[in-house]
């Protein structure tokens, strides 16, 4: 600690388990106990976002079973299908093992019977095109993309500790040092994405995966888009209700600032156990978002309150850039 500020090199975290145990005690459970419990749960579940009508179709329509041996003919690689990890939207996810090297991957598998409409194929193609060009320590790595007569396959980095959503469900809230640790890594990844002109547009706890060393990895680029021209504003209504920015709801155009808003929602949820605008109805949640109606608990520190207010500024132009968050705001958040 330097003048009351923590200086964390996230790339050294994996080799500093004792430091983590000291600075990030996980409530009643030890650091090791949390790892053991998370290890017992299904691993990295990549959940692409599709319209609800299509999700219902997947639940009702019988799909052909995924083969036990999956062959990437172009690269001459055979994968052995392992445990089922989960499903979301069109995709079923399995643990895959490279038969030659025994390397483990997360396999995102989509039946071609669910990709019959042009917009469905275009959506998946865009997701792969964006994700395959990304390489960062805090972004889930996409390795390969191939197909056979029945399915489309995407092989991804396997994140053994699932996501921050699982940690949130167990703990409800985390300490300020823990929140700073996680949010700092999210910001590093988002800074990289924005430099690459990519807006994620669906940042939330469920899309923040954790590897074996509890390092954050941003995944699921199903709603991601690229900014091709300076000042370009997107007008697609998309995102997850509790994390969606007001300018998206207003349909006046949005850009990189929606990711900053989502980081604010993530920070708030980690610290206080629930999203800032959450209500029992979607209509009321959207109303509160548009009115910027939320409350920071009275037990929150002044620095935390100030940071959240900056991230959740109603006017996107008044939100800090992710570079400002990393260089100016995060260092003051102890």
From TrEMBL:
<dbReference type="GO" id="GO:0005634">
    <property type="term" value="C:nucleus"/>
</dbReference>
<keyword id="KW-0067">ATP-binding</keyword>
<keyword id="KW-0677">Repeat</keyword>
<keyword id="KW-0808">Transferase</keyword>
<dbReference type="GO" id="GO:0004674">
    <property type="term" value="F:protein serine/threonine kinase activity"/>
</dbReference>
<dbReference type="GO" id="GO:0005524">
    <property type="term" value="F:ATP binding"/>
</dbReference>
<keyword id="KW-0547">Nucleotide-binding</keyword>
<dbReference type="GO" id="GO:0000922">
    <property type="term" value="C:spindle pole"/>
</dbReference>
<dbReference type="InterPro" id="IPR011009">
    <property type="entry name" value="Kinase-like_dom_sf"/>
</dbReference>
<dbReference type="InterPro" id="IPR000719">
    <property type="entry name" value="Prot_kinase_dom"/>
</dbReference>
<keyword id="KW-0418">Kinase</keyword>
<dbReference type="Pfam" id="PF00069">
    <property type="entry name" value="Pkinase"/>
</dbReference>
<dbReference type="GO" id="GO:0005737">
    <property type="term" value="C:cytoplasm"/>
</dbReference>
<feature type="binding site">
    <location>
        <position position="108"/>
    </location>
    <ligand>
        <name>ATP</name>
    </ligand>
</feature>
<feature type="domain" description="Protein kinase">
    <location>
        <begin position="79"/>
        <end position="333"/>
    </location>
</feature>
<keyword id="KW-0723">Serine/threonine-protein kinase</keyword>
<dbReference type="GO" id="GO:0000776">
    <property type="term" value="C:kinetochore"/>
</dbReference>
<protein>
    <submittedName>
        <fullName>Kinase domain protein</fullName>
    </submittedName>
</protein>
<dbReference type="GO" id="GO:0005813">
    <property type="term" value="C:centrosome"/>
</dbReference>
<dbReference type="GO" id="GO:0007052">
    <property type="term" value="P:mitotic spindle organization"/>
</dbReference>
<dbReference type="InterPro" id="IPR017441">
    <property type="entry name" value="Protein_kinase_ATP_BS"/>
</dbReference>
<comment type="similarity">
    <text>Belongs to the protein kinase superfamily.</text>
</comment>
<dbReference type="InterPro" id="IPR008271">
    <property type="entry name" value="Ser/Thr_kinase_AS"/>
</dbReference>
């Amino acid at each position: 600690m330097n003048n009351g500020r923590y200086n964390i090199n996230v790339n050294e975290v994996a080799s500093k388990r004792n430091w983590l145990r000291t600075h990030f005690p996980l409530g009643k459970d030890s650091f090791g106990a949390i790892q053991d419990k998370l290890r017992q749960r299904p691993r990295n579940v990549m959940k692409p976002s599709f319209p609800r009508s299509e999700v219902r179709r997947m639940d009702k329509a019988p799909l052909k079973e995924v083969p036990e041996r999956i062959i990437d003919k172009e690269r001459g690689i055979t994968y052995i299908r392992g445990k089922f990890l989960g499903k979301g939207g069109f995709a079923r996810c399995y643990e895959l093992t490279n038969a030659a090297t025994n390397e483990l991957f997360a396999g995102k598998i989509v039946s071609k019977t669910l990709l019959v409409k042009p917009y469905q194929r275009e959506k998946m193609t865009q997701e792969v095109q964006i994700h395959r060009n990304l390489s960062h320590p805090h972004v889930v790595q996409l390795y390969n993309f191939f197909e056979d007569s029945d399915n489309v396959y995407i092989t991804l980095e396997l994140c053994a500790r699932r996501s921050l959503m699982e940690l949130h469900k167990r703990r409800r809230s985390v300490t300020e040092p823990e929140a700073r640790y996680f949010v700092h890594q999210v910001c590093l990844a988002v800074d990289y994405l924005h430099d690459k002109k990519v807006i994620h547009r669906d940042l939330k706890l469920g899309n923040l995966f954790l590897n074996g060393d509890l390092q954050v990895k941003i995944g699921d680029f199903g709603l991601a888009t690229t900014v091709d021209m300076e000042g370009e504003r997107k007008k697609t209504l998309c995102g997850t209700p509790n994390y969606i920015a007001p300018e998206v709801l207003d349909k006046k155009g949005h850009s990189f600032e929606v990711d900053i808003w989502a980081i604010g929602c993530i920070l708030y949820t980690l610290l206080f156990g629930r999203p800032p605008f959450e209500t029992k109805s979607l209509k009321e949640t959207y109303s509160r978002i548009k009115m910027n109606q939320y409350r920071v608990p009275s037990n929150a520190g002044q620095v935390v309150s100030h940071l959240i207010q900056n991230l959740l500024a109603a006017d996107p132009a008044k939100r800090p850039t992710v570079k400002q968050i990393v260089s100016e705001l995060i260092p003051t958040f102890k």
